[in-house]
Amino acid sequence: MKASELRKLSPSELDKKLAELKDELFKLRFQQAVNQLDNPMRISAVKKDIARVKTIQRDVELHGAQS
Q1: pLDDT of the residue at 26
Q2: CA 32, CA 26: separation in Å to the nearest integer?
Q3: Do 28 and 46 meet the contact criterion of CB atoms below 8 Å apart?
Q4: Which domains, and CATH codes, for the chain?
């Protein structure tokens, strides 16, 4: 997901998206542990998406909704 798409979301939607991504990361790590993971690069992609969401949440916290 692109940062420009995430910036359009409200703070509550960002919280929901963050929870979904963390749940997906947990499931991917579990699949990796039992050797059923098809695409190991998906783990790094989800981690980057989590970082994007957290960065935007912090930006909104510091600068408000104006940015």
Answers
A1: 97
A2: 10
A3: yes
A4: 3-66 (1.10.287.310)
